[in-house]
Q: What sequence folds into this?
């Protein structure tokens, strides 16, 4: 049994510490630094993950322009007033089988007594894109 944090968890904690240092900035410089951090993460991804996350980034920008791009524990994320609404846990970062697109409680996607908040995505295709457009469009 492994003791302590995994390599991936330690890397995520280091990324979060760097993000918190950026949080000390304000205004345009902060937004630019956070956007660039997100683009740098996307740029370092394998092509299949890059295609998924790039399209998520475009969809969020089109349908929820008030959500600002940033990283969250080293993952691509989009936030309003500093609170993450949407994030992507890319498979290669956490040695997972597939990439996950997630929505926090701040996205307010409530649908009855139970609803999903994380979606496994193996490829970007018209069906996946339509579902993401619907979900991002519902963020309140």
A:
């Amino acid at each position: 049994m492994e003791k302590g944090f995994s390599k991936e968890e330690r890397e995520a904690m280091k990324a979060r510490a760097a993000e918190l240092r950026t949080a000390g900035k304000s205004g345009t410089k902060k937004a630019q630094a956070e956007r660039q951090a997100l683009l740098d993460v996307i740029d370092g991804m394998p092509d299949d993950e890059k295609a998924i996350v790039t399209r998520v980034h475009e969809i969020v920008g089109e349908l929820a322009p008030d959500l600002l791009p940033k990283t969250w524990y080293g993952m691509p994320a989009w936030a309003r007033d500093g609170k993450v609404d949407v994030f992507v846990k890319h498979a290669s970062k956490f040695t997972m089988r597939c990439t996950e697109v997630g929505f926090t409680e701040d996205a307010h996607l409530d649908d009855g007594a139970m609803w999903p908040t994380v979606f496994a995505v193996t490829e970007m295709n018209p069906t996946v894109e339509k579902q993401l457009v619907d979900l991002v469009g519902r963020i309140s």
